[in-house]
Structure formats: structure tokens, C-alpha cells
Amino acid sequence: METGSPKESGIPGAELEWRGLQPALMRLRRLLVVGWTATLAVATGLLPGLLVGPAWAAFALVPVTCAAWCWRLVGRNWRSWRYAERADDLLISRGVLWREETVVPYGRMQLVEVTSGPLERRFGLATVQLHTAAAATDATIPGLDPAEAERLRDRLTELGEARSAGL
Amino acid sequence: MTAPDPGEDIPAPAPVTERRLHPVTPFRRAWAPVAVLAGWAVHDPNATQAQLARLTTTALLLGLAVLVPAAGLYGFLSWWFTHFAVTDTELRIRTGLLFRRTAHIRLERIQAVDVSRPLLARVAGVAKLRIDVVGADDKDELAFLGEQEARALRAELLARAAGFAPETAREVGEAPAQELLHVPPRALALSLVLTGATWVSLCAALVVPTVLWLATHNLWTVLATALPLFGAAGASSAGRFAGEFDWTVSESPDGLRIDHGLLDRTHETVPPGRVQTVRIVQPLLWRRLGWVRVELDVAGSANSVLVPVAPRLVAESVVARVLPGVTVPQELSRPPRRARWCVPVWWRGHRLAVTGAVFATRRGLLRRRLSLVPHAKVQSVRLSQGPWQRLWRLADVHVDTGAGKTVTARLRDAQEAARLLHAQAERSRTGRRDARPDRWMTG
Q1: What is the ipTM of this complex?
Q2: Which regions in chain A score pLDDT beneath 50?
Q3: B interface toward A at CB cutoff 8 Å?
Q4: What is the extent of the structural domain holding A91?
Q5: Residue A97 shares a structural domain with residue A128
Q6: A11-35: per-residue pLDDT in tens?
Q7: How deeply is B53 buried, as exposed, middle or buried, from its count of CB atoms within 10 A (0-12, 13-18, 19+)?
Q8: Which CATH architecture describes the domain B273-430?
């Protein structure tokens, strides 16, 4: 499962200090899954149950099964997210089936953004997003503790200024 | 009044002199409503015919007599309220009658300067000047300036951007250029004949209207499809020939000069160190002749062609001048054989080479595209691996550049890709150290 992780590829000095996301993010996502499933299950159960016959209410089991699967997926996806601050670049690794690993040198950062929506705030979460001059750079870390997000933002800006390289 | 301190010899900042564009500018606006009407007529011919039938000649003339001066007045006012000024560090453009807009363009951020002279502008002796910076709009072009003025302004902007002292910047004048390459018209014409797209668009323009005529017998339908198709066919053959005619690439201390065009002349200048990626494209039919096309990406610039057609060795020598210290790698490594289960047949086309100066990938079996990214221009590196690729222990490595382009090394061995990811991040970080400064004459 872990092929391609830097630890196994024999890169010198790759003993990285990986950090994961806050468990609150998993809770938030699971809550969303449960909320949507409940709505869908009621809709798919009630409508055929009332219109056609009580037996047809069994359709409600379809979204419930899907939700059970999504519940597991959310957990696996949450565990797969991790990031590491190295001396000169930031590493973000994520994804279970579609794995993606991003390296952004600090000197290339144009902008660091910290966002937090109403639900995220309620769960005490914040998202840090890094922008470089390349639009394709997809360096987002969701589900951070707001204090950690601010620390990361300040550290990234500081390191970015010290190593600034531009285009 | 106190006497000036004798020890102080710093001159006071010179007052910024604002200039206006060339007085011919308002006239281009005068024809805008006529162009809009013509566009509407082409777009919806049936309705236009019905409307035209109801109008008398007098009404039509009266309408034009009102519309053209109104547009002319608008053109005059927008010209009157547009000013530009060159300061030590910025080009300032102030415009707008109702909605004011002021753009300050930092000169050391210039990615390219284009002077273009469309056919009518050449007749009038004027030119457009456009400065490419990241995030610049079409509104930030100076249209129109006198031809001499545009050349002088370009030289001045480049001299200031290069880091010459403000007092001397105006006197430095145009840097001498040394010609690197000139594309003869014969080779250009032959290259277009050997391009598949030319023939596809010509065939489409001939076949589709014929089929439609046989199917519907409706003249308007046929005309409405035939006109755009013929337009596309003309643009891809005659239009491209006219646009790429007399293509000259030269080198000057100000950077790369690209001049081209038969009717509309364009003169582009790309200062040193602005090129983000270079692509060498070789269509199938050109391979026997050993010809290639070279494209380049500059952040914030729309121009993408460096050499429309040239023999491979000549093109490679031009690339070596554009990206100093880079030799085009000849030996590129293939993905492992098991990659054929991920991308059948075409897996052979995906090649990769990493040299001390560039990250180079090639893709395509028939039409080969070799992309070169100098390590110093890499903004971020990504590794991605889907489930099917993981089964075959393969992964892709993406390299993102500042021009919004991503160069991908596909189907590499997973272990190799992971090493490549980290090695490339390291190279892109250190590659910047020996790059030239933004103000290229100061370093």
C-alpha cells in the first residue's frame, strides 16, 4: 500500500516528521455523510412506501448502505492526509486510491491563505492553502487546528520571504 | 527660502510627464458600431434581410450619420482621458471617463514587450505597444502610438527594466540585435502543406457544406456553416502563412527579438530569463525533412511560437541561446515495459530525461512533443498515482511552471518517481541560485 513513500525509497535524510489532520475533520465529514444520508433515506423510503406499498420502503436501505461505505472511506481518506515541513520545502501527501504527493519549495510561494467556513469554525478547524505562480499547484491542507494553521501560515510566510525566488 | 544644503547632490525626483496616445486613436472607435452591425448581420442573416427590407436608404444614411459621429465622440473622449507616463520603476496608465482606472506596471516584472502593427495601423504609421506582466489585461496595451515613439518607448522601457540609471535610460537607445534565424517563405509554405490541420480544415470546408446542401437545399443553412468553415480553413493556411511570414529571431542584450508578419507586423521582445518552458514539436510529416517547430511559454504572454519551422539542429542552437547552458537531451529513457498495461501502444512515446539544467519529457508517437523546463523555473512538483497504476507499480510526476503549464513525466517506475519527486524539488530550489536577476543588466 505504501509504495512510493519517501521512507522506502532510500532517500538520504528522509526521516520526516509527518503531521496528520485534526480528528474533528473526520467527525465533521462523517456528520455531513450522516445528515445527507438521513435526508436521502427518508425521501427514498417515504415516497415509494406511501405511494406504492410499505414493502417498497426498503429502498431506503440503498442510501444507508452507501453511507456505511462512505463512513469507512472518510476515515481512510482522513488517515491518508499528512504534511511535513522540511528545511526548504513543504510536503503534502494525500489520497488512498488516487495518491498524490506535492512538494512546494518555500521560495516559490506567492500567497498563503487561511480559510475557515461556518461549519469548520464550529468544529474548530481551518484550511491552509498555498499559491505559487503556477495555477496547477494544488497545495491545500484542510482540517487544521486554527492555532496550528496560523503558526503554519506565519512560518511559511517567514520562510518564503527568506528564500523568495519569484517567477 | 533657505539655500540648498551644499552637501546634498541628490536630484529631486523629476516630475512625471504624462503623455497621450497618438491622435489617430479615436478613429478606430468610430468604426465599432458598423463592425457590431456587420457582425450581427453575419450571425443572423435571415432577420437582417427582413430588417433591411423595411428600411429606406435615407433612414439608413441618417442612422449612420448619427452612429458614426457618436462613436467618434466616444473615441475622442476616451483618447482625451487616457494618459500614460514612464517613471523610474513603473509604467503608469490612467484612463476612463466615467469609471477611472489607473494601472501601475512594475518594470522589473516585465515578462515581454510586444509592438504590433496591424495592416491599417501600418498605413496610418502607428503601432500598438503591449507589456506582458503576470495578470495584465488587454486594457493595459498602449494603442496607438506613433511608430517611432513606440520603438523609442520600447527601448526606454527595456533599458529601465534592465536596470540602467534613470538619466541614461532614454539615451541608451535600442540595443543592437544579432540575427539568429530567418525562416524562408518556401520552407514556411512547404511546412504548412505538410501539416495535417491545414488539410483537415480545407476538407471540412469543402465536404460539410456540400453534404448539407444535398440534405437540406437551404441556402442560408449552407452559407451559415460554410462561411465559418472557410474562415477557419483560411486562417489555418493562408492566415498562418501571412502571420508567420518573414519570421526572424534575433538576440540582443535586451533579450530575444521575434519579428514576423506579412500584413500585420509584430515585434516581440522577451528579456533574458523570462522563458518558462520550451517545446520542440515534430509532426509526423516533417520528420523525413528533419524539421521542427519550437514553442515557448512566457508568464502573462499570449505568444507561444518561437520558430515556426526550422531544421532540427538550427532549432536546437536557438533553444540553447534562449535557455543559456541548456543542451537539448538526445537520449531519453522509456517507461518500464509493464507500462503497456496502463497505456497500450502509446506508452513508448512517453520519455524522460533530466540533465543538470533541464527537466525534459517527450510524448506522442506520431507527433512528438519534447518539453523542456529549466530547473530554476519549476514552481512545484507533484507525484500522482491511480489504483491501476499502483497495481503496475507506476506513477506520474508533474512539474508546474509559472506560465500555467504543467509538464508531466508519465508512467515512471514508482520508486524512480518518488526519488525523482524529491530530487527535482531539490534541483528546482538550488537551480535558482545561478539564475540572472530580474534587472538583467545589473547582475
Answers
A1: 0.84
A2: 1-13
A3: 111, 134, 274, 276, 299, 376-387, 390, 393, 395, 398, 400-402, 404, 406, 414-415, 417-419, 421-422, 424-426, 428-429, 432, 438
A4: 82-162
A5: yes
A6: 444 577 899 999 999 999 999 999 9
A7: exposed
A8: Roll (2.30)
